Amino acid sequence: MKKNVFIIGALMFSSLAFSQVGINTPNPLGTFHVDGDKDNPATGVPTAAQQGNDFIVTKEGNVGIGTTTPTSVVDINADGRGGGQGNDLYFNGFGNSIGPGLFLGSAQGNLTNPTNLSTDDIIGGVYFRPRIDDKWQHTSAGIRSIYKGDGTTNLTDLRFDTSNRQRAIIDENGNVGIATTTPVSTLDVVAKNATGTSTNVDGLLIPRVDRQRAQSMVDVPTSTLVYVNDVTTGTATGTAINIDVPGYYHFDGTAWNKLNSVKADTNIYNTNGTLTSNRTVTQGANSLAFTGTTSNAFSVDGNTFSVDAVNDRIGIGTVNPLAKLDIVGTTFGIKNSEGSGRWDNIWFNVGPRFPSINASGAEDGLQFNVGSNSFGTYGDEGQVLTTVATMLPSGNVGIGTTTPASRAVLELSSTDKGFLPPRLTTTQRDAIPAASRPAGLMIYNTNTNCMDFWNSSAWVSTCGTTTPAPGTVTEIICGSATNSGNLTSGVVASGVTSVIPYTGGNGGSHGGQTVTSIGVTGLTATLSAGSFANGNGNLTYIISGTPSATGTASFAINIGGRTCTLTRTVTGAVGNISGSINCGAAANNGTLTARVAATGVSSMIPYTGGNGGSHNGQMVTSTGVTGLTATLSAGNFANGNGTLTYTITGTPNTGGTANFVINIGGKTCTLSVNVAYNTTAPPAIVCTSAGYHVNPIDPNWFHYCIFQNNNWLQYVLRCADGQVFNQAQQKCVAK
């Protein structure tokens, strides 16, 4: 009771002494002063924190909230209130008071006698003032309205300012101007830098969609304009029948049409034509390159000249070359010159039955030169070549000499080499049909170690008639063979040998042998004819051919009266891509949607230069949009070009682009797959604090929490496609 009497007395005292009223304070600083938290001092000026809960009306009629010294009609300060609702201004309407509004009005004259505005008078505005350079910037940014009538007409505009400059306007006629104060059409956009060398971007960016999105739109107003940036999605059917290349399209009420479809784009890249006169391309120091991905990528006059860009081949007289250079015709050649000296030439005749290699102007003969150089090209850079054979115009042939004797059809010349005639066993010799044995035919008999010749009626030996004993061994040991080189399935064997030891050789001769493989087929082990050593020795078998599969190739060795089985292991080729893998050309099947489990989604990635080898497959997790996995099953690469099919599973966490880093066969690329944004809101969150909160399931969505009337209110909001909510920045940002 004493407390109440004191407050009433204080109020009466303040009113009588100073014509001021104070509530919860004995020290009112204005005509009407309320100390909300009753924390002001009895004398003097309260601190900023103490003023934070004060309400005051000054003698000038200014109202202050959070300040005791208002400088305008209404001056509200919020200091240290914690953000969110603590800083907000609410005007709620209920029942027949719904639809509250904020009205700013202006008139000339005064309150008791207002008069009409004049043109260009400011009606009012909302301004945003940052504190910079130790002072408040009152006109940094804002929205304001200017009266444009004559005092009798209701004509107003609306202007938008940023950084102390007007950026846009809606004039009194409804025209919108961007970067201009005087728009002359419904929408008038002016470049910020119409001339000069500024690197800032000027332009109009209209909505960008892929073909599938354009095709999916319904109830599209006529004249709608979009930019289609991807035509690999959707199909060229229905309203998208004309969408075949990226570009601008407008809707005519029935279908999307190219914005520039009225003006045909005619050039040699998309339109056939006819030269009306000769043309010359002056390249100067510039190169002229053609790239292609088809077999007949470039041709002249049909099959006169053709370039196979798929297999890196050139065809002359054919559009299907089967070799690096494939010439179809009966005659082709090389000559020294076009005029004098044209008779110095070499040419090939590819006629039926008797194709020929011809040389003209070869007065000193046609030479065959061979070198083992590891440097230079076509005889330059000091390459060393040896003439191994010479053919003279007179028909003489010399091997080891460039000047064969004029009376010798064939002259062999060497100081360290001999002449090695065909080596046959007696059985092989006698198998030559008698009707085709010309007199003088000579062979070396490996059973007798003698030269034999046919005298038109019988074989005659050039040495004694005693036949040496046939070669034998005590044991041949395949299990101790020394193997060199490797065998790979599907790869031609090269440099592969097996050296098999034996014991108890009698020094006799053998005719060699050829043994085909079993188990893994396609291989041959060949032993040249020769003689066994007296005692222990080795037999060297050369293995050739192409193994048909992986596993063990077995050779049944039978020589010198003994047998054994030689085995060699054939491995599989390691998968490799010598060309390229092209993620950008992947064929995508199925669709992906944020927060929806993927089903029936796959990507087929093409590659070139496969070696037919195996790979172990792989699993690749996505980046960008996470939650997905691209899986390739183990298998084999094709021999040449092929595709790899990745199955995409999982649940994407949001919309956008899911990226998969593919690394297989020694090549890498990044597969990018579009994920559609989910327009169905994710489950609500539990509000525990006021403000904006990103959705933990899909960052494309966020929630605004407000605590009101002892309850949490929650608004579910969504960022634009291509954006996510940044919790730290409290706004939607680009991914």
Mean pLDDT: 88
The chain-level structural class is mainly beta
Tally of separate helices: 4
Give the CATH class of the largest domain: Mainly Beta
Question: What's the helical proportion of residues?
Answer: under 10%
Poorly predicted spans: 1-18
Spatial separation of the terminal alpha carbons: 66 Å
CATH architecture of the largest domain: Sandwich
CATH topology of the largest domain: Immunoglobulin-like
The biggest beta sheet reads:
6 strands, mixed
Tell me, briefly, the overall form: elongated
Overview of this protein structure:
- It is a single chain.
- The protein is mainly beta and 735 residues long.
- The protein has 8 domains: 87 residues, no CATH class; 68 residues, no CATH class; 49 residues, no CATH class; 57 residues, no CATH class; 39 residues; 97 residues, Immunoglobulin-like (Sandwich), CATH 2.60.40; 93 residues, Immunoglobulin-like (Sandwich); 44 residues, no CATH class.
- The N terminus is likely disordered.
- Strand 58 and strand 59 form a beta hairpin.
- It has a 6-stranded mixed sheet, with no helix packed on it. Strands 35, 36, 38, 40, 42 and 44 form a 6-stranded antiparallel sheet that branches. Strands 1-2-3-4-5 form a 5-stranded mixed sheet.
- The chain contains 4 helices and 61 strands.
- The radius of gyration is 49 Å and the shape is elongated.
- 17% of the residues are buried.
